[in-house]
Amino acid sequence: MALLERLDEAHVPLWALTNWSAETFALVRPDPAYAFLDRFRQIFVSGELRLAKPDPAIFRHLLAAIGAAPGDCLLIDDAERNVAAAAALGLRTHLFTDAAGLDRELDRLGLLPDR
Fold first, then answer.
1. d(Cα 43, Cα 28) in Å, to the nearest integer?
2. How large is the greatest C-alpha to C-alpha distance in the chain, in angstroms?
3. Residue 89 in contact with residue 83, Cβ under 8 Å?
4. How far apart are CA 23 and CA 95, in angstroms?
5. Is 11 helix (H, G, I), strand (E, B) or coil?
6. HSE (CB half, 13 Å, CA atoms) of 75?
7. Are 12 and 113 in contact (CB under 8 A)?
8. Residue in 8, 13, 74 with CA at minimum distance from that of residue 39
9. 44-86, pLDDT tens digit by residue?
């Protein structure tokens, strides 16, 4: 959560893309354990969109909705197939394995403010 908080506090635009069902998402969203989701500008829920990662259509939908070019975005995901599909569309990607690796990548990209 610390990385998400730092990015949000640095005003890095954040969006979420999840393969949750619409029903499950609606159940967990009010739970205080998921308050971190408030840091995202918008959350794209595959169950609501009737699309799911790694289908390229969901990434195209996200890009159109936020008005961004693929190369201007960084997709962070813990599934190789999702990262590969996003990369094939030109998105910058990071396969999440641990917070330390993501921290290094975000720092390399200049997205993290000084501590």
1. 13
2. 40
3. no
4. 27
5. coil
6. 31
7. no
8. 8
9. 999 999 999 999 999 999 999 999 999 999 999 999 999 999 9
pTM, whole model, 2 decimals? 0.92
Query: What tokens appear for 14 in the block?
Result: 């954040």
CA dist., res. 16 & res. 41, Å (int):
8
Question: How is residue 19 written in tokens?
Answer: 């393969």
Give the residues across from 16 on adjacent strands: 43
CA distance linking residue 27 with residue 46, whole number of Å: 15
CA dist., res. 113 & res. 115, Å (int): 6
* Residue the block writes with tokens 């259509």: 57
Residue 96: HSE in the Cβ half-sphere, 13 Å Cα cutoff? 11
Residue 59, judged by CB atoms within 10 A of its CB (0-12, 13-18, 19+), counts as: buried
